[in-house]
Design brief:
Layout lengths: L5 E9 L2 E6 L2 E7 L1 H10 L5 E5 L6 H10 L4 E4 L5 H9 L4 E4 L5 H11 L4 E7 L4 E4 L4 E6 H11 L3 E6 L11 H8 L6 E4 L5 H10 L3 E4 L1 H4 L15
Parallel strand pairs: 1-4, 1-12, 4-5, 5-6, 6-7, 7-10, 10-11, 11-12
Antiparallel strand pairs: 1-2, 2-3, 7-8, 8-9
Helix pairs in contact: 1-2
């Protein structure tokens, strides 16, 4: 039986506030993270992705969200050690998300202890397939295809492709890069950054991606960017 393709709302945190960026910059305040996560949970989102863009593991906020939602939660931001991963998984996360700078050793440690299905490697990239760290500021001079292959080999159970160029723009997901990565890995791939519509997300599913994630699409009423938290699958 084929697994259901996931449509995933993404929540960015900054100092306990929910925000949304454009091109990984200029975070705009949205409201209380717990209330936003509850709305998505009540609408039966497939999953909720939470990313702390200050790269700080906020355990108290994670606990509050986990107590108020009834769907799987994946958490990234500040997961720098095996103990950090243990804390996040202990307090309600199903998966931890590690950025491009995560070492192969850390990926392997978490995968060996919690299982590969608990480790997501998030690859921040531009439209040319270059991979970045430091919140999209530093090019690590490795193309996204090879970085994805390395993450899988290290033990990651999922790849998250996060477009810096398209983040928050409603420009459309980068299907071409998604397809390149899908050709070289055999673990689930989630594509994020620039989703313009549910149909846009479904088109990436048709390429073989197991999930598509979006922030602006579920936080704003279209490109006018009036705050309106919502969730739908079709």
């Amino acid at each position: 039986m084929a697994l259901e393709k996931r449509i995933i709302p993404t929540l960015q945190l900054a100092y306990r506030r929910a925000v949304k960026t454009v091109n990984f910059s200029d975070p705009r305040y949205l409201g209380d993270p717990v209330n936003i996560a509850k709305i998505w949970s009540e609408h039966e989102a497939h999953e909720i992705i939470i990313i702390d863009i200050t790269h700080h593991l906020n355990v108290e906020m994670l606990k509050r969200i986990a107590r108020n939602v009834f769907v799987p939660v994946s958490y990234g931001g500040g997961i720098e050690t095996l103990d950090d991963a243990r804390e996040a998984l202990k307090w309600g996360c199903e998966k931890v998300i590690l950025g491009c700078c995560a070492s192969k050793v850390l990926i392997r440690e978490i995968a060996d202890e919690a299982g590969s299905q608990s480790v997501v490697a998030s690859l921040d990239h531009d439209d040319y397939g270059n991979t970045f760290i430091d919140g999209g500021k530093t090019d690590i001079e490795m193309d996204i295809v090879n970085r994805a292959k390395d993450a899988q080999a290290a033990g990651a159970g999922e790849i998250m492709l996060h477009s810096i160029t398209r983040d928050g723009t409603f420009q459309g997901l980068n299907r071409a890069l998604a397809n390149q990565v899908l050709q070289v890995v055999n673990i689930p791939v989630c594509v994020c950054g620039g989703a313009s519509s549910i149909d846009d997300m479904k088109a990436v599913h048709e390429l073989g991606a197991s999930g598509c994630a979006a922030g602006s699409l579920f936080c704003f009423d279209g490109p006018a960017r009036n705050v309106l938290v919502s969730y739908r699958r079709n």
